[in-house]
């Protein structure tokens, strides 16, 4: 019995919609009033033909929108996209001096910690730029993806493993 009830309750909104549309169609079918559309070329008040006004487009001066590119919008952390001025045939800077040391994936916060060869610790979120020009694209469970123009590179957390006992 519960299966029939579930089908009835699940199909009830659809049934109400179909019955409502059918009632509307039937009302329009039997109503005696005809729809009267105005003539396309109707004369004006004085017997002359009325021309609709031409659409006049005015364009705003570009300087009125200068605030869009002069200051960040929506949040203080918003920065312009990194534009690489380097030619495409030049290889990207190396990432051998970077080590991924930690990742936090709590719902309000997604952070990655990198350690540079000199010992400096970097705390980055998605979209941040590294000092060497690479951009942090994605943070995952144990790895991050960085990009430099068309080049992409993945850094993973290298964790030490305990030796297994051979007994």
Notes on the protein architecture:
Keywords: Membrane, Transmembrane, Transmembrane helix. It comes from Achromobacter seleniivolatilans. This is Type II secretion system protein GspC N-terminal domain-containing protein. It is flat and about 90 Å long. It has 2 helices and 6 strands. The two termini are 62 Å apart. It is an alpha+beta fold. The longest helix is centred in the N-terminal third of the chain and has 29 residues, at 2-30. Strands 1-2-3 form a 3-stranded antiparallel sheet, with no helix packed on it. The model has no long low-confidence stretch (mean pLDDT 80). β1 (98-106) and β2 (109-116) form a beta hairpin. Helices cover 20% and strands 23% of the residues. The relative contact order is 0.09.
């Amino acid at each position: 019995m519960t299966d029939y009830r579930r089908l009835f309750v699940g199909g009830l909104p659809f049934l109400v919609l179909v019955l409502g549309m059918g009632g509307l169609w039937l009302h329009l079918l039997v109503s005696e009033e005809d729809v009267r559309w105005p003539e396309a070329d109707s004369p004006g008040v004085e017997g002359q033909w009325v021309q609709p006004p031409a659409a006049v487009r005015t364009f705003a001066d570009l300087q009125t929108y200068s605030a869009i590119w002069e200051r960040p919008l929506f949040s203080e952390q918003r920065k312009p996209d990194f534009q690489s001025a380097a030619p495409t045939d030049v290889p990207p800077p190396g990432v051998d001096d970077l080590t991924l040391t930690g990742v936090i994936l709590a719902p309000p916060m997604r952070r990655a910690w990198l350690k540079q060869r000199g010992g400096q610790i970097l705390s980055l979120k998605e979209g941040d730029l590294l000092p060497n020009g690479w951009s942090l694209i994605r943070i995952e469970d144990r790895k991050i993806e960085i990009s430099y123009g068309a080049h992409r590179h993945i850094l993973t957390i290298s964790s030490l493993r305990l030796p297994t006992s051979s007994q």
